Amino acid sequence: HAVVIEKQYKDLTRTHLRGMMNSVIFRDNGTQAVEFLTAIGDLEGGSEALADYFTERWSRIEAFARSGLFDTVEDDGEVLTEDELYANTYAKPRLDEDEVCDQDWMQMAFTLRYQLPDLFIEMLLVLRAKARAFERGTGEEYEALEEDGRVETKDTDRGKATPAALEADEESAI
């Protein structure tokens, strides 16, 4: 549940989400990665959380889905349909797992594609929808960045919106 909750905090760079997911999924050298990813996928909002995890790597994930490689140079820009993705489910890996064992996004994508293909496809379809929404300027990421690419923090910088400042009427324990 924590992964889905973290996704909902609107971490625009997804740094916290990726860090938290990596620390949980690749704990003990990733021996329980499939179980953790399955549990995330079973939650409402789980596929969206996984799509958010891969947001900054969308083109490389798309290339991986198409060619089995993370290199976008081989990618001709064609996007596989959902049926083509399912037909490609049991394709032999073009990379060895050792080549992507980075305890980060590549290893997670490899694990999803070859051990949890249904979840990989579901995540990729959500990721595509988010990319289309962003391109049209209707995505949530776009709304937060629409002015100048920065998020307004002046109220939090001076303690005006922090829980401690909002509860100023309460007596201090110090």
- DSSP summary, beta strand count: 0
Query: Major β-sheet, in short?
Result: none
Q: Kindly estimate the percentage of residues that lie in beta strands according to DSSP.
A: under 5%
Overall pLDDT confidence: 77
Proportion in helices = 55-70%
**Uncertain regions: pLDDT < 50 for 5+ in a row?**
142-170
- Written as H for each helix and E for each strand, in order along the chain, the element string is HHHHHHHHHHH
Brief synopsis:
The chain has helices at residues 2-8, 15-25, 33-42, 46-53, 58-67, 82-87, 105-115, 117-136, 140-145, 154-157, 163-166.
Structural features:
174 residues; 56% helix; globular
Explain the overall architecture.
It is a single chain. The protein has helices at 2-8, 15-25, 33-42, 46-53, 58-67, 82-87, 105-115, 117-136, 140-145, 154-157, 163-166. The protein has 174 residues and is mainly alpha-helical. The protein has one domain (2-166). Helix 4 (46-53) crosses helix 8 (117-136), helix 5 (58-67) packs across helix 8 (117-136) and helix 7 crosses helix 8 (117-136). The longest helix is centred in the C-terminal third of the chain and has 20 residues, at 117-136. The chain is globular and about 40 Å long.
